[in-house]
Specification:
single chain, mainly alpha, 60% helix, 0% strand
Length: 344
């Protein structure tokens, strides 16, 4: 993957540094723009910093991954992002309907997560639009957005495995084993998504659509990496994954129906069909065994679990608002109208 085009003074300066051998540098503290989740410059800078812990970039020396100057700069960017999340995602109470039950009991954590998910389900349904109304171009745009995460599906949450013990760890490993296809390449969810992209004549190479996705799409991925790369955020990472799994099965059923309506074959729809079945099971494991087990072992971090779930739900709603709002106005939801097609 190549470094993307800069989106402002922050990424312009950062990318110029990253194109050189690792060295000491400082980012000017005044490089601050609009609200964090909407800030194209900030979100792209964070995404690139995080990507050095995943697949990296062809022209960036691997030595940058743990360079102290870059980590210091990333910390400043993360502080802005965390503050921005705190502004739009109030920390939820331990449970919306009861006076602070002991969340050390897994059933209480599961109930609290379920009520959080139910309370968030009040916005326009992107899944319903894709099922019934979207044209092929709109479905292709949606897939391009989602490729930023789905082509590395599972990776951000896997950071939590060595940071857990006991029941929570076993539950997370069970979920992640399915994400990686049980060790079979052709069943890995990232590979299934590539088949969907190829059917839509989209370039399925890793990061091919990075230049085209807006800040909110990057913020969704950045939240996972923020929680995953910091041990202190492990509770939030588990809550994020639980919300992800608990809100996945029905939308994926609708995505599959929408793609079939537009001519998608069994291979193209398999990614969505797989999630209908797998995530119906995963949501129970994630809420009760993983998050409930974690809260029982680390009760002081129970509220972090709910906060991570709330972040996932809020960012997903903002993403849906952006995409549907763009389509209602008759414009693209991407930063550019064009899409990289297969083979390029």
């Amino acid at each position: 993957m190549q470094l993307p085009a800069p989106r402002g003074p922050l990424t312009g300066l950062l990318f110029e540094r990253l194109a050189r051998p690792p060295h000491a540098f400082d980012l000017p503290p005044e490089l601050a723009g609009e609200p964090a989740v909407e800030d194209e410059d900030l979100q792209l800078a964070l995404f690139v910093c995080y990507e050095l812990h995943y697949q990296g970039f062809d022209e960036v020396d691997d030595g940058w991954e743990w360079n102290p100057s870059l980590l210091g700069a990333r910390q400043a960017l993360e502080r802005r992002f965390e503050d921005g999340l705190a502004e739009i995602v109030p920390r939820p109470p331990l449970t919306p309907s009861e006076p602070r039950p002991p969340l050390a009991a897994p059933m209480h954590m599961r109930r609290a997560l379920a009520e959080l998910v139910a309370a968030a389900d009040d916005g326009p349904s992107l899944a319903a639009f894709l099922e019934r109304k979207a044209d092929l171009g709109q479905f292709r745009e949606f897939v391009a957005h989602r490729s930023i995460y789905h082509l590395k599906e599972g990776d951000p949450h896997t950071w939590a495995i060595p940071r857990l013990r006991g029941r929570a760890k076993a539950a997370l490993v069970e979920i992640q084993a399915d994400e990686y296809g049980g060790g079979r390449l052709e069943r890995m969810h990232s590979e299934l998504f590539r088949a969907t992209m190829r059917m839509l004549d989209l370039d399925d190479s890793y990061g091919a659509h990075l230049d085209r996705v807006p800040a909110i799409t990057l913020a969704i991925g950045n939240a996972m990496s923020l929680f995953g790369l910091h041990r202190r955020r492990r509770g939030a990472l588990l809550g994020h994954l639980a919300a992800f799994e608990m809100t996945s099965s029905l939308p994926n059923r609708r995505y599959g129906r929408g793609l079939r309506r537009l001519g998608g074959d069994a291979a193209a729809c398999r990614f969505y069909d797989e999630h209908v079945q797998a995530d119906a099971v995963h949501e129970q494991i994630a809420a009760h065994d993983m998050c409930g087990g974690f809260a029982a072992a680390s009760p002081a971090l129970a509220e972090d679990v709910l906060y991570g779930a709330a972040c996932a739900l809020t960012l997903d709603r903002l993403f849906a608002d952006h995409v549907l709002g763009s389509w209602r106005r008759g414009t693209t939801s991407l930063r550019e109208a064009g899409l990289a097609v297969g083979g390029r």
